[in-house]
Amino acid sequence: QVQLVDSGGGLVQTGGSLRLSCAVSGGAVNDYATAWFRQAPGVERELVAGMGWTTFYGDSVKGRFTISRDDAKNTVYLQMNSLKPEDTALYYCAARSSGTLSMRPSVWDYWGQGTQVTVSS
């Protein structure tokens, strides 16, 4: 059974940086497409960045966020720079057996528990 454990969230000031981590167990991270979603209160879950056969970044994070993977550590990362108050949300790591990325949360097979990111103005 594949399990994902998110970590690395916290409180940061505008312009600051955070690095989120997603530790994968029960499978090799390079066998899956992986992604980071985020969800703010009252808003649908949004695909922020993904890595599969292609790499995707949402328009609001392009140039500021970077998704990467360390196969030896079986971990996926999201480096977030130049953070803004509108980046405040609960961030979730996700994985799916298909290499195709999708913006639809329902097609992703595995989810982390979420890690809170709060950016103060």
Low-confidence stretches: none
- The fraction of residues assigned to DSSP E strands is over 45%
Order of helices and strands: EEEEEEEEEEE
Principal-axis shape equals globular
Question: What is the averaged pLDDT score?
Answer: 97
Helix content: under 10%
**Contiguous helical run count:** 0
Distance between the termini: 41 Å
Record field, number of beta strands? 11
Class of secondary structure makeup: mainly beta
Structural Rg: 13 Å
Largest sheet composition? 7 strands, mixed
Structure overview:
Strands 2, 4, 5, 6, 9, 10 and 11 form a seven-stranded mixed beta sheet that branches. Strands 1-3-8-7 form a four-stranded antiparallel beta sheet, with no helix packed on it. The protein has no helices and eleven strands. By secondary structure, it is an all-beta fold. The termini are far apart.
Brief overview:
It is built from no helices and eleven strands. It is mainly beta.
Fill in the keyword field for this structure.
four-stranded antiparallel sheet; mainly beta; 121 residues
What does the secondary structure layout of this molecule look like, with pairings?
Layout: E1 3-7, E2 10-13, E3 18-25, E4 33-39, E5 46-51, E6 55-57, E7 65-70, E8 75-80, E9 89-96, E10 110-111, E11 115-120
Parallel strand pairs: 2-11
Antiparallel strand pairs: 1-3, 3-8, 4-5, 4-9, 5-6, 7-8, 9-10, 9-11
